[in-house]
Amino acid sequence: MELLQQQVMAGLANGAIYACMALAVVMIYQAIDHLNFAQGEMAMFSTFIAWQLMAWGLPYWIAFALAVVMSFAAGVVIDRVLFRPVQKAPILSQIVAFIALFSILNSSAGQIWDYTIKSFPTPFGHTPLFGGTLIDTHEAGMIGVTLVMLALLYVFFRGTRLGLAMRAAAANPESARLVGIRVGWMTALGWGMAAAIGAVAGMLIAPVVFLEPNMMLGVLLYGFAGAVLGGLTSPAGAVAGGFAVGIIENLAGTFIPYFGRELKLTFALIMIVVVLMFRPSGLFGRRVVSRV
Amino acid sequence: MKQLTRRSVLAGTGALAVTVPLLSPRVARAKNYGPGVTDSEIKLGNTGPYSGPASSYSAVPKSQVAYWKMVNDDGGINGRKINFLSYDDGYTPPKTVEMVRKLVEEDQVLLVASPLGTPTNSAIWQYMNQKKVPQLFVATGATKWDDPKGHPWTIGWQPNYQSEGRIYATYILKEKPTGKIGVLYQNDDFGKDYLKGVKDGLGEKASMVIVEASYETTDPTVDSQVVDMKAKGVDVFVNCAIPKFAAQAIRKTAEIGWTPLHILSSIGNSVGATLKPAGFENAKDIVSDFYLKDPSDPKWTDDAGFKTWVAFMDKYLPDADKSDAGYVAGSSLAAMTAQVLKQCGDELTRENVMTQAASLHDVTVPMLLPGITANTSPTDFAPVKQVQMAKFDGQRWNLFGELLKGAIG
Amino acid sequence: MTSVPKDGIAVPQAEAVSAQRPLHARLTTRHLIITGTTIVALLIPLAAPGFMIFPLTEVMVYGLAILGLNLLTGFNGQFSLGHSAFYGIGAYTAAIMMHNYDISYFWTLPAAGAVCFAVGFLFGLPALRLQNLYLALATFALATAMPQILKFHLLEEWTGGVQGLPILQPDPPPFLPITTDQWLYYLTLGVILLMFAAAANLVRSRAGRAIMAIRDNPIAAAAMGINTSLYKTITFGVSALYTGVAGALSALVVGFVAPDSFTIFLSISLLVGLVIGGVGSIAGCLFGGLFVLYLPNIANSISTGLSGAIYGFILLLVIFATPSGASGFVRFARDGFSAPALDRARFLSVWFGISTYGVITLLIVKGAGLGKSSPLIFWITYTMIILGITGWQTIMAVKRLSDMRRSRWWGILLFVPPLNMLLLIALFCAKTRSHDTLTAI
After folding, report:
1. Kind and range of the H or E run holding B45
2. Do B98 and C256 touch (CB under 8 A)?
3. Is pLDDT at C14 greater than 60 in this prediction?
4. Which residues of A touch B220 (CB under 8 A)?
5. Residues of B in contact with A212 (CB under 8 A)
6. Is there a contact between A133 and B256 if contact means CB atoms under 8 Å apart?
7. Does residue C438 register a pLDDT over 80?
8. Mean predicted lDDT score pLDDT of chain A
9. Which stretch of DSSP H or E encloses residue C63?
10. Which is higher by pLDDT, B246 or A264?
11. Which residues in chain B touch residue C308, judged by CB atoms under 8 angstroms apart?
12. pTM score
């Protein structure tokens, strides 16, 4: 029983990472209606920039803020430069553009900052909580920040005009234009926000997994899984999905006797596929009904 | 008949001295060239993961490229410059096959030096031996490369993983014969080799291993594996992970207040790449094995070999992170290849390359631990076999004991 | 010609004339291109050196794998990121049959196809419920799981585990005086021709139309009485079959299978190849295969340290220039020239596209080493490409010019870009004086 409890806690800790990433993924999905494969690499790159700023002597919070702002700007630029020319192209071509971005960011980061792992500081410290078992202050802080971001996004999207405009632009660009919403800028804003959230996610994740160019590969995979499990239309669902993926994966690894250890990723993904079969839009997603 | 004056004798001798070598058959300096060799150049081939998920190992081929540049700047080998062609294979075997075939058939290299990776080298193993091209000093520690009978054109280099595993097992049997062992290993060739080595080394006591925890490189953390081990009562932790996961494991072990006998493999024991991110205080009393010097260990600051290496890095790879052990491995591999080429003299055929590679006697390179040398023979294709154990005291690794051999190969 | 006697005199009757048009009118440009390409393909291994045949064989194998993906994604609209799994299953089927059971390589191809069809079909069943991104994730899961499954220790006896399985490459039949490389090339070529023809046939048939209808409008298709579930699952199976056969061929050609050869990155490469070649185009798949194989080499030769970045950059350029892939571009050029309102801007944009492709073809040819080893082959290839493209465009331009009632001599301008490209080629092919050093930047 204690093992179960411990693994659930460890799963929650891992799940916080995935939830963070899933949130960023869903954010951009809401803005541009596509999954951005390069999301992880953008987050990784932003984290490296923060690290570099700190290496040059800036204190943590200044570097943090600067990295977030720069990521926001970079997101907008990427949208204008990369996304705009292929906007009218078929979806698959856009996905290839994302793949190209992934490749560029990953390779550049490796070339500039090398592949040795670097430790990334955390404002929360690493002291263990709850009597020294599994979750430490940083991981708790990570969960906290994720939930706070989620709340802020909720308020933004539901409660402000700008949020409403963004949702409209993503849901029905033509009608939005007719109402006077500048759809192009809404998309750019969505990209910027997604990049900024990604930067925060990266800076939260790096202290746990150590900073290196390939750190986001696995995280993105699980983040996607969590986002899809929770439903791509629901940020809260994505966060919940991220936690769920973390817990499922840990429990599968520990308790399934033969296959568990080696095939835990497979298991996690199978579980998600099964869930999707019964709830095709994810656990908390809205069912999209299309008129014939 | 002219008078035999001193002058005429000298002139005659001089004339003889000049003409005799010209007339006699050229046995004294036999120049025998294989493909890729001219009077001024030797072409060598190499593949490595410059891109893709294994790109963290790109330091190995990169440092080789830089090393050969240094060799050329210093005049080359026996007057010949080295043209080192290094191609990216992304750690995917089909790409390796493609690149190696290009090297052998299009670029016509003399040999392929230190291709990196076990699956990648396995893919070209048969080809190289069929085509009789030296597959020299492969950059992987799998056990199978020491096979002079079956694959006479392939030769390994570093102590293989299974022998290291056995060394850990021997150490455990000495220090904690009733311990419960947990092994953390990467779910691929080298990880499984370590595990096998440990279990084989334990022999009948292989049941001491109660947790075999694997991880994939796509896993974000190995925290849950560590937690699992502690919960199951493991008190000997054999950590065969790469630096990223080794560091995570070390940190987590300290976080959860677990103090097993912690054995770290040579893959993940760098001071700068693993222990520093993990936290020096957390790494106290960890035991590991070495055959190369750790560049981030302050112990070697005044060591002559280390200084040579640092000078090389400063000049040819100034922006590189010296704590990446890949740079040490790569330059050492290249140095060993340079030694073989030097031994070949002017007999630069593929056959002679293998003959020379199979007759290394106490060859050393700057970054091998003092006392460890490379030795090969026609029946022994494992050049570096010895390692030395060390314990971390919170600041540096302290070598102890004598040089150990892995008893395999 | 039949004749009906009338008044004792044989009179050829209008209706008796053959209902079909004569042969030379029935042949379309498409047939000519296919025949021409096939002849060239048959001759290449006899003229080209050995190390070039191997990559060309691989190009064909990738082309076949991409065709499999195309059938599913391009023609049926089911998004799949999991084809590396089918590729791997096919490869391992072949490897296990040859390594563990000593079965001749001939049988591995249909066996791999059958196994993959079954797996694809079974996977297609739950896939029916998943749409778009969710299907993408499910197939992503399959692709990510495959290396793990292949490494799984319970299956190690068959799969060789992490060490992989070596395969003895097939020898050419004793009566043919060709090398193993050439034999594998011809074998692959034969399989390709067969399967591409079958795919083209499928696409043009009723079933093919049903499949495409499901892609375009599933609801309408169902309303028309098409059994969407059946067609979707069968398409999944067929698509897996194609990619599986490609995997088996690749096992023969490379001579080795290992779990790490079949990761999600392979799936992504196949997807990139699909898009570059043109979604929904069968011929485009080969171009996609060419791209997938050679672009990493080109990026690597430009800079080993930043090869990924260069790869991404070139990929972006190509996507910007031809968002619908190569076939989309061909279609656009063709339609564009017959459109009534032809303006200068369109000319220029088409020429930009052609030049981009010309430069890229050049780089590919350089990367393939054709220029270095045999200038003759290079020049022949280049001339064919340029004559084919330029000549055709010039003819169309002249036609348009006369329609627009302008002097036909404006068509000469079309030759200016090729002259630029000739200069580029000369520079590329010039012998370098000092030997190149491959430096990591």
Report:
1. strand B41-48
2. no
3. no
4. 14, 17-18, 205, 208-209, 215, 218-219, 222
5. 56, 244
6. yes
7. no
8. 83
9. helix C50-69
10. B246
11. 51-52, 55
12. 0.83
**CATH topology match: B30-158+293-378 vs B161-290+390-398:** yes
Which of C265, C372, C440 faces B62 most closely, judged by CB atoms?
Answer: C440
> How confident is the model over C316-343, as a mean pLDDT?
67
Are residues B167 and B401 in contact, defined by beta-carbon separation less than 8 angstroms? no
Token code pair at residue C238: 């067929």
CATH 1.10.1070 fits A2-278, yes or no: no
For the packed helices C132-151 and A216-230, what is the interaxial angle rounded to 10 degrees? 130
Contact B115, B46 (CB under 8 A): yes
Q: Is A175 helix (H, G, I), strand (E, B) or coil?
A: helix
Instruction: Give chain C's mean pLDDT.
Output: 78
- Between residues C370 and C243, which one has the greater pLDDT? C243
Most trustworthy range by pLDDT among A63-72, A207-216, A248-257: A63-72
Determine which helix (DSSP H) or strand (DSSP E) holds B18, and give its type and residue range: helix B6-23
What distance in Å separates the CA atoms of residue A87 and residue B2, rounded to the nearest whole number?
101
Domain B161-290+390-398 has CATH 3.40.50.2300: yes
Interface contact A99, partner C, CB < 8 A? yes
From A270, which residue of chain C is nearest by alpha-carbon distance?
Answer: C141
Cα(A33)–Cα(A169) distance, integer angstroms? 10
Residue C62: left if φ>0, alpha if ψ -120 to 50, beta else—which one? alpha
Give the confidence band of A63 by pLDDT, cuts at 50, 70, 90: very high
Q: Which pLDDT does position A265 carry in this prediction?
A: 74
Shortest CA gap B350–chain A (Å): 35
Report residue B136's pLDDT band, with 50, 70 and 90 as the boundaries: very high
Which chain C residues touch A107 with a CB distance below 8 Å? 306-312
A100 touches chain C (CB under 8 A): yes
Each domain of chain B, given as residue ranges in start order, spans: 30-158+293-378, 161-290+390-398
A200 to chain B nearest CA, in Å?
17
Q: What is the pLDDT of residue C354?
A: 62
Q: Which residue has the tokens 């190209």?
A: A100
Q: Which residues of chain C make contact with B162, given a CB cutoff of 8 A?
A: none
Question: How is the beta sheet containing B81-88 ordered, strand by strand?
Answer: B81-88, B41-48, B111-113, B135-136
User: Are residues A93 and C325, on separate chains, in Cβ contact within 8 Å?
Assistant: yes
| Whether the predicted pLDDT of C436 surpasses 50 | no
Closest-CA residue of chain B to A213: B56
pLDDT digits (tens, 9 = 90+) for A34-59: 778 888 999 999 999 999 999 998 89
The domains found in chain C, sorted by start residue, are: 46-289 (1.10.3470), 339-429 (no CATH)
* Interface check B213 vs A, CB under 8 A: yes
pLDDT band at B331; cut points 50, 70, 90: very high
> In angstroms, what separates the C-alpha of B117 from chain C's closest C-alpha?
11
Q: Which of C66, C337, C378, C328 is nearest to C199 (CA)?
A: C66
Read off the pLDDT of residues B188-237 as tens digits, 9 standing for 90 and up: 888 888 999 999 988 888 888 988 888 888 788 888 888 888 888 899 99
pLDDT at C130: 82
In chain A, domain spans: 2-278
Closest CB to C129: pick one of A82, A111, A280.
Answer: A280
Which amino acid appears at position B303 of this protein? Answer: D
Does the pLDDT at position C3 exceed 80? no
- CB within 8 Å of chain B, chain A residues 133-162: 133-134, 136
Q: Cα dist. A194→A191, A199, C324 in Å? A: 5, 9, 27
Cross-chain residue pair C440–B84, CB shorter than 8 Å: no
**pLDDT tens by residue, B32-68:** 888 889 888 999 999 999 887 788 888 899 999 999 9
Q: Does C134 touch chain A (CB under 8 A)?
A: yes
* Yes or no, beta carbons of A111 and C305 under 8 Å apart: yes
Fold (topology level) of B30-158+293-378:
Rossmann fold (3.40.50)
The Cα A24–Cα C13 span in angstroms is 76
